[in-house]
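Exercise: predict the structure of this protein bound to KG4.
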Amino acid sequence: MIILGIESSCDDTSAAVIRDGVLLSNVTASQAVHEAYGGVVPELASRAHQQNIVPVVDQALKKAGVEREELSAIAFTRGPGLMGSLLVGVSFAKGLAASLDIPMIEVNHLQGHVLAHFVREEGDGHTPPPFPFLCLLVSGGNSQIILVRAYNDMEIIGKTIDDAAGEAIDKCSKVMGMGYPGGPIIDRLARQGNPKAFQFARPQIPDYDYSFSGLKTSFLYNLREWVAVDPDFIEKNKADLAASLEYTIVDILMKKLRKAAKDLRIKHVAVAGGVSANTGLREAFHDHARRFGWTVYIPKFGYTTDNAAMIAMTGCFKYKDRDFCSMDKPAYSRVEI
Ligand code: KG4
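Solution:
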C-alpha cells in the first residue's frame, strides 16, 4: 500500500508518501509572501499553491523513491480551509488519480491533525496513542478538545466560541508591532520573561468550551493605557508581556483539558495543531504527565503545522477500509470533524 498525501488547505503546499504505514517523504513549500501583510492573503495563497503543487509532489515522489505508477491511492485534504487554496490540491489530486486510474481518499484536515500522532518513520520506535484518547487541537483556526474513540470516530466535546488560541496569539503579537505569525515570536520572547508580570482577562465559559476574544481585548486595552503613559512600554516589557500572554493562554487551555480528562477518566492525552509547537504548552503537558499520571503525546515539530504526512496517514487508515471517494466531491471550506 503506497499512499500519496496532498495538503493545500491554507498557506502550505505539502505532499507526502507513506508505504505500509511508514513515512517515506514529506515535502512542504511554505509561503513567505504573506509575512508583509500580517496574515494569510487567500488570493496570494491559491496562486502560490498553483506554482508549488507540481514541484512539491514531484519532489515527494523522488525523495520516497516511488514511481507514480506504484501509487495505490491519493489522499487529499478536502476541507476545512481556504476555498481557493483547497481547490488547487483537490483538482490536482483528481487529475492525477484519473490519469493513473487509482482511487481517491478525501481527508478532513482536522482529523488529519489528530492522526498525525500515528505517523511513523523508519526506526523511530514511535508509540501512537491507544484509543480512546483526548486530543487538544490548537491552531490558528481551531481550539478544540476532541474525544478520539477510533481513527474514524471523533467527537468534539469542547471548542472555542469565538477566537482560536493561535489567532489570539497572532493578534496580540500584531498589536505589539511584532511580525507574523506571532506564535513563534511570542514563544521566543516568553522564554526570557516573567509569566506572572501581567494579568489579563480569563473567560468564564461553561463545560469544556473556550473563549479567547475577551483575553485579546483585555490585552489590547491594557496595552493602550500603558503605552499612553510610557510610549516605550512595549519595547521595555515585551518579554514579560509575551510570557504573561503565553502563560494565560496555556493555563486556560490546560484547565478545560484537565476537567475533560478527569470527567471522562482518560489518561492518554495528545496535543496537535500549530500551537502545539509552543514551548510553554509542551512543558505544561509534561508537567501534567508528572502530576496526574497522564501519558502525553506531543508531535514532532514537523507535524505541528500543516503537513501532508498526516493526510497520507489518514489515507492509510481509510484505504484499509476501502473508504474511497468519487471524482465529483467538491472542496469544502467549513466542516467539523
Ligand atoms: O495549524 P497551523 O499551522 O495552521 C492553521 O491554523 O491551520 O497553526 C498556525 C498557528 C498560528 O496561529 C501560529 O502563530 C501558531 O500556530 N504557532 C504557535 C507557535 N508556532 C506556531 N503558537 C505558539 N507558539 C509557537 N511556537
